[in-house]
## 1
Amino acid sequence: VKAFTNANARDLTQAVTLIRQARDTHRSVAVAGGGSDLLGMMKEGLIAPDVVVRLASIRSLDHVTVKNGVTIGGLTTLDALAANAAIRRDYRVLAEAAESVATPQIRNVATIAGNVCQRPWCWYYRNGFKCLKNGGNTCYSVSGENEFHAIFGGGPSYIVHPSDTAPALVALDATFRLAGPAGERRVAAADFFTLPTVDASRENVLKDGEVLAEIVLPPRAAGTRSTYHKILDREAWTHAVVSAAVVLDMNKDVCRSARIVLGGVAPIPWRLPEVEKLLAGKRITPEIAAAAGEAAVAGAKPLAKNSYKVPLTRNMVRRTLEEIAKA
Amino acid sequence: MAKRRISRRRFLEGTGTVLTVAAAAPALRAQTPAGAPAAPHTTITIALNGAQRRLDVEDRWTLAEALRDHAGLTGTKIGCDRGECGACTVLVDGKPVYSCSQLAVWMDGRSIQTVEGLTKNGELSALQKSFVAHDAPQCGFCTSGQLMAATALLSANPHPSADEARAAMAGNICRCSNYNHYIAATIAAAQGSTDAGRASQARQRDGGDPESVAVQPAAIKVSSATSPVAALNVVGHDAPRIDAAERVSGKAKYTADIMLPGMLYARVLRSPHPHARVRRIDVSKARALPGVKAIVTHENCSVVWGAGSISGGAQYNDEVKKITKHRRYAFNNPVRFVGDPVAAVAAIDRHVAEEALQLIAVDYEPLPFVLDPEEALKPDAVKIWPEGNLSPTARNDFQPIGQKRGSVEEGFKASDRVFEERFSTSFVHNAQMEPRSAVAHWEGDKLTIYTPTGGIANCRTDMARDLGIPAENVRVVCQYMGGNFGNKNQNQDADLIAAALAKETSAPVKLELSRKEDFIGMHGRWPTAQYYKVGVKSDGTLQAIQLRGFSGMGPYRKNSGNIAGVEIYQCPNIETTISPVYTNRTVSGNFRGPEYPQGFFGIQSMMDDVAAKMKMDPVEFIIKNMTRKAGDQTPYTNYSLEECIRRGAEAFEWKKRWKSTPGSDPGPIKRGAGTSFMAFRAGLGRSSAVIRLDGSGKYSVHVGVTDVGAGAKTTMGLIAAEALGVKLSDLEVVWGDTDRCPYSVGESGSRTTIMTGYAVVEAARDLKKQIAEKGMPKGSDVLIGNATPNPTLQGKVRSTFGAHFVEVEVDVDLGRARVVKYLAVHDCGRIINPLTARSQIKGGATMGIGMALHEDLLYDRRSGTPLTPGYYGARVSTHRDAPEIDVIFIESDDGLGPFGAKSMGESSKVPSPAAVANAVANAIGHRMKDLPITREKLVAALAAENGGRS
């Protein structure tokens, strides 16, 4: 690994300053949350920063605060998040998503902000192909090995968004607080992630030098049930082949409203508005769950080697709804 | 808290402890070369195993690097350096963290505990003791990480269930796959007990899936009905490894832990092309980088890698070296696969060496390439070698390999039914936890090479032959080794490259391969395509078996490429034609039962399918058709195959679990059972042993084993103790150093116990004879018993037998296949050490499950680039993928080998993939013909069967 300077940020203001200073002196900069993935990318030569600005040293962004909903500091570890009693009780989908990530060792350092903002795990990108995500102008998966690629929202890049917590946060209607050189702004989780048609080299709206500082979850409505189901490729430590974050606002056994967001199938957390409409005002019977499964895959455009994701998605949505209805 | 320190002076003002460490650490900044700017570095303060330490660290150092290279704590291992395997796990403020994936500079003010901190005042912790008692560490390379994860678990949850332990340790891969013993040891430690039986009871109380719980004790020993075997004095009793304390305390020194004064670090530049001519290599910029000491390429290094070439190892003699048409060099031009070495650099530290690689400019002329073995044999395929892509034998014989008995044409005519089917298996990497490395050190004309080899004697011969120096001038040392699994009973190109660089620089050189390099630059199981045609009588009696097979060997023929399995059936007419084929993929080689697990998957899936189509119970079909004499003519030294199958079927409750109508479970969760059986070589052969007895009464057993993880040192010690009539504690075992040990056959082919173990028996006999003649030595006298027996079999074949029984659960909606019950029944002759034997059987079976269900090395077809090298990409099994494996040993003693012991290490993996695949077919009613049986294949197959619906 090329020599670089590490700079521990004391607070958000200093972090933004450190990033700006590096840029002003024409030094490339990378920000580190937990750092696991960042170091891997540096060792693979995917990035070679001159300066690493460490955010995990910002103590004020490592918190879960319950007040008018919940505010989660971006530097909260996935382990802390999954273990947090308020999150487990009221935002189960997020706790389950967080504890499905990678391994205990990674969850002990990985931050929620880092998980949400992590770069794709497409094997072309990770193996250093000069693809759309890596300064090139081709997505190698389109006519290559695309077993794990997008069946929704693909083009010109067909990556799938790698985050488990992102579908949960979109399903929970979270708001992200971003901080950067131009100050702060707030973005709805659903608007944070961007399709490759917007900018194929990126996965979200973060501007240069901007970081995800905090995540705000709205108060939980009484009767909310939520869960995260994830299909892995072996029994531990893989990204989602297909996952589903389901949040149902229930009045006894009738679904008042639903938010269903898929992971592993699209370049962004993939919300299913048609399925949500279909469920609203209904009892979750096996027939409704099956219809929801069908609706979930309407419009899927599988590539040559990932059509198996279509039945997988259909069955996953149906089964998750059946199970949550029983809960 | 962290203070940036530019001057070395401030560092030297640190605590005395750090000073000592710094003096012992050769690669510290003291070596910053003239003209090179010092890399940014920072002084940090940490509580390291309870003691406050100040360390000056480069900002780019990982915590693992700082601990290992600069704090002298090499108990923390680097298995992948990417947060995929867990070998580097340490506790940071009490929580397990991958030290390879954290920067040391981030640790300022934190408390760090490593494996070295678990031992208090020289006493192992309760968990460490439990690991020893349960034989949790095999090769030991993942052990420190497992210990740290388990330590954190027990402090947070003093009474975990087995499933909780698996979840907490899911980030710690064990390629020996001794997952059962790690979990049992952790739970036993939680109960303050080191007794294996109590851990087993604890599992039953878990309340988890009752089927995943071992109902019986972990292993049952049964003496064969035909050959009663009673335990001897030492042999046959559970014995913890003699070096277990070293393996659980971080004291065991593996090759990468070797530090020599003035040592340089080497890195290899590898081809990014699957096939290309190297037009020009410009090393001038790299050579000019301060700190770079030497660069070797094909232009200035023409060393032949003999053991890497045709047929490899012992078959590669001087004559073959002269005549071979397809010679493999340490650096080849053209390069023939992505990962073929192009250049290597030695520099003052690993970062400088890595930077130098970036500065080497290589002008490649890309050539057409071929990845698939069947494609490679087509007339218009690119020729990887001038003679074409059918790989020749060592004697330049360009013919497929195979066997023939009777006439298959006649056999098919005589058959009532004939079946045909194609099966395929994929490239699965050995993935031993220790990445390959080598430390080479020349003293005058004498080379010492520290390397993870399973055969110090063969490695030494190979090194001498390849470097053109006398064998006396080569010393090979391997004290501990992080897993073998094949292709290590010889030298590696890393050894040669390190030796070349050490010669060039007149300094010791350490070459470390990354995990990715180990995956793509070294060897894995050859992928196969297998076409079977089988004829049977209406009662199910076999009449003819024909196999046409293709094995993808990569561009260099390292090993046989054979496909085994047909020979374990009685059948009057057989014909196999196997083509080992060159491709532009990573080289294939021996991996735990080289030609067996993939061949057994093919033939036993085929036969299971035939039985299903004949409406026969596969157990009945097997008993009707299995081998009873080798090749249907030569008797076995003993025969227990039928007993293995019958006892296994009974203990497994086969009739209850097997579905006479496959796929008949209602609903999406379907269960089914499968079986397969095994006969595997257990021949005799030449090896040596020396036992020295001195005037103090101390016995020293010198054997040329390295102990790859199977427990050879302990096994040799037990055999010696039994043969000498002394206690294990009365003797020491001397191993792993060609200067101190006699020839050994080397740890491959499951031969060490049989061959070197028998040499120990004979050496003991010799020593006892001398004692009888001369009396016990006194004062400075010594007696030396030695033996190099080369026993042969008189017209018989010696084989080990076994049968595996597997129940799987398949969720057809979600394509999830999971093993819920597994029974392995083995006749390995007499069991020398039941404790380590269980580890061997469970590990092999568990590895086979991974091969059956998920492991693969996937390639991009357009660029010829491997896409999934590494534990994450290749989906190597984790704690959560490993079910409980029940083991039954049927012991026998055929009067041969040491006390009747037979082979074991490979045989436990051989039947596993077939048994799992057969269980899947029984569960879902659909035959899965291509390994691995991944989720995507299962879902796609079931969707296709339902007309696109599932």
Note: The first helix of chain A runs from residue 12 to 24.
## 2
Amino acid sequence: MSMGMPEEAYGSIREDFIVTPISGKAFPVRKGEVYRIVQTEGGQCVDVNAWALADRREFMDTSIMRRQGIHTPKNGFLVSNSPYNRLLMKIIEMAPNNKADVLMHRCSRALLEAVWEVPTHSNCQDMFAESIREYRLSPDHVHAAMCPWTPTRVDEDGFVRGIGYESRFDTIGDVMDFLALEDMLVATCICGIADYSNLGNFYPRPIQLQIFEASEATRQMVAETAMMYPPLESQLSRDDFAFSGATADYAIDPTPDPSYEPHYVYWPQKDVEIECELSPAQYAAVRTIVESHRRDDDEDAVRRAVMEWYLMNRTNPHPLMGSVHGPFNGAGARR
Amino acid sequence: VTEDGRVRVKIRFTEQQVILLDKLLDEARFGDTHADVVARVFDEYLRSREMKRG
């Protein structure tokens, strides 16, 4: 592990949580603690939101973070929105193949209805909203997401394209560690359209979240970061701004609502098993795809082929999807 | 493997994916069952790959 930050230098694990498809989970993460996401089974697009505990109006802003690249790199920072513009968290461990996209925003009910004509489908907006409800936040507090393990690119004409991983084995076992530079609330969910999109290899799988307590070494790293990038005079706190209207308390209560019970749509994920008879020629093609495209097995090869075909032949071009799955020039119509 | 050489494959789809298979069933051009839809769409997928290859 680089940056002189071996995992052994982190504090003890105080949270260890499996996020099952299709759901999310929010946790307060204190300054100096390390928040870890683990790709337990690989190939899973993940979405992350983060707010300052002191003021929910200060949150990770992916638009300013794009100045670090369309994929936030290792040693990159989660930066808060204007007028705060503070460094909230630092990525201190990250596999080279992990592309943490900050272009894709997040999926929503409207996107699913517009593109797939399925308005009831799980989506990241709703999953974030449901996860932060435990901390008394509401759907309008959800913001544009960072999406780790989401390979994207901008083509030569400036269109955004979702690429995905050819095989989930490319990322299995990866970890991504965020050092909290401030007291935070962090929510992470499994991408809501992972079963309709190559960004989840067309089959949602669990991820693991861990929080390591602050240690002497992680506190030192927070201090070193503050020395490298000291607070700026212009980085005002909420007490510095003149607000009109009633004074409100924007702090996030870090105590979970004891009455909270999560309710995610289609959760827990259920499967329907379909037995197909394939001709010898079809089955030979399945085996070729398994080997040439590094699919898990016959099931994975067929399921992914069917869903890819649907994506390319039965979805509607729409501004909400843009060019992610194909060219979009604004002239497309519903099929 | 059946007597005529066909191969039975079990495939799990999520409940939400089955909604899309139902939409294809409604088109009435991919057969009468989910199994028909999966096999015929897989053929369409293979044909589209061949077309891409030229």
Note: The mean pLDDT of chain B is 92.
